[in-house]
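Retro notes
What went well: the complex prediction finally ran end to end.
Inputs used:
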Amino acid sequence: MVPAMSVIKTEHLTKKYKQLVAVDDISLEIEEGECFGLLGPNGAGKTTLIKMITAVSPPTAGEMWIQGKSLKHFARQAKAVLGVVPQMDNLDPDLSVLQNLLTFARYFDIPRDEASRRSREVLKLFELEGKQNSQIRELSGGMKRRLLLARGLLNHPRILVLDEPTIGLDPQAKYLVWHKLAELKSQGVTEFLCTQNMEEATTLCDRVAIMHQGKILSLDKPQELIYRYVGREVIEVEVSPEERGRAIAELQSRQLDFEDAVSRIYVFHVDGDKLVQGIASSPDKLKRRPATLEDVFFRLTGRSLIE
Amino acid sequence: MKLFSWRFIRVWQRDRDVFLKLWHSEAPGFVAEPIIILLAMGTGLGAYVGLVDGQKYIEFIVPGIIASYAMFSASFECTYGSFVRMEFQRTFDAIIATPLNVEDVIAGEIFWGATRSFMTGTAILIVASAFGLVHSLWALIIPPLAFLEGLMFASIAMLITSFAPSIYSFNYYFTLVVTPMFFFSGVFFPLSSFPEIVQTMSWVVPLTPVVHLTRALVSGQFSLPLLLALTLIIVLTVAFFLTSLTTMKRRLTA
């Protein structure tokens, strides 16, 4: 019934709250060993989706399988193979760094000796060896985040679920985390990565889904999404309020694909400069750059704030 | 509804480890305070109180002090303590992402609350015995009774916690429920000194049967209504325990 290769599978997964459909009929298949990215603005339903696939919150409708086993009946077994790295710091402030790891290992029934061996191993992996006797409050934000990642690996998970793993990290720590995630993936660990960092998604993910208002709007390889929605390059035209009307009329008459962001116009799917000649008042108001996932994100989810 | 599994012990162990690390800040409230109350009330007020059967007042209040402070221990642990772990430290969220589920976490918290009652009750019992205030070997049953009492009050506390919008909500519970029980459950005065209506009401608050049972174990004098008291404690414990598992599950897995 369930294809052998999909380690996470959801069918018509839905979560409704009183007034709100947080996750709306999502069917996904995540393959073994891939890094799957989930992008979306705040309130898109990403965290709710994560809570369901990690068996923390039951769905209102739909079904899920982890490694082919239904979460409805095998929640404990599923949670034993998952490594969850939450967005919010939930380290245990009553315990030291090492005690945090040992206590967490005990939730997985890892014997004491093995637990201390693995604790040292994950501390080393995230360059926290010197901190094992520190209290949580003595750690910087970046160290806490690395410790959350380290904790998520204690049970040697086959599937890692990461909710914004590099949020608030300095560039050095961010690259360390990216490097470790790539390394884990090369060891065959499947990664489900929820992020708002487009560079992160482009760098790490094999496939990316863009989620908005509880639905998946599009799902593909990052490059494919970029080619499909915005092309290889984007031209940004800086316009003053007086020029704006004329520039838009001109773009429309040339049948170009563009987006009007008030002080700036983005032109997509353009292969050469010729097409946009004469649109800007002077050449220095015109910038040509490679298209990114962020352009796709804006095209699909809009530019206005979502509350 | 689902029951908890043996894995609840992992949560109990976590709470125990934290207690062993921080016990010195907990001990004054639950050991020193009851002993001060016992000695101050017993010797100070006791000098003015003559009991009908010639019993010393300080001996009269020993069982009530044990039962009350055992109640306080479990009640504080599973209101303020559990709320901080749940809302401020997000400890429950971290645990339910492992093979443990909500029922295991809540059962672990309740059993830990009961353990606190057990420790408090035992400590006061030892001090009271050292002062020569306990005369019956039946008193050896007081620690397990304190544990059972702890299960009951921890379950009630957990139910309150499952509905508490903020940590300040517990002020209502302590001011309007716990403190009145301390005074109207026969701890400091025999229930017979109250008006009829208070006596009747007193029988339905959960501390009263515990005080009666503890008093019987201290004195070694038993009567038939004590069976009713024990039954009441067990029924209330089971009812509140199961209800709090359900309401907590609703709160934590929404």
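What we learned: The interface with chain B takes residues 17, 54, 56-58, 75-77, 79-80, 82, 84, 86, 88-95, 99, 103-104, 106-109, 155 of chain A (CB under 8 Å).
What to try next: split runs per interface for comparison.
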